[in-house]
Amino acid sequence: DPPLPAVPADPAEELTAWCGVFLTQIRGSRELLRKAMGAAVERFHEMMNSFEPARCADREVHDYVRAMVRDGWVGQEILADPDHEELLTAAQTMLIGALWGDAMAREHRDDAQLWVPEDRAAQRYVQVFLRALGVAKPVAGAAPVCDVNPTHTTSSL
Predict the structure, then answer these.
(1) Which of 6, 16, 70, 72 could form a disulfide bond with 150, CB atoms 3.0-4.6 angstroms apart?
(2) Any bridge partners for residue 136, and if so which?
């Protein structure tokens, strides 16, 4: 899958594209992953380690979130919290968990009202994720401005 950039320029767009690819990869490997989940513990780790997107997703999102913090995208109300590292980790864990849950369980659910439409799932999960990080809603026509303590907006929230 395409890696997330080292320097976030448009987190909503970049994360939505990345999540869309990740969802497609998991959906395409559902049967292998289900077998791995049903295997003995030793075999489970072996099979999961062979599935590259699963091995890399947590680290890639973690690194991207830290780049967002570094570059001023994450809201000050989050960063001011003494437990902000745990909040950041919880948000990224929830994003990856939502992607996994969607990819692995959607086909077994029959109540469409309980699911985001599949073609908008990545966008909506990213939208909620960015709100959890305190990324500001876009201001029409505004571009991100860097200063000593920058706050960025993104065009796809």
Answers:
(1) 72
(2) 153
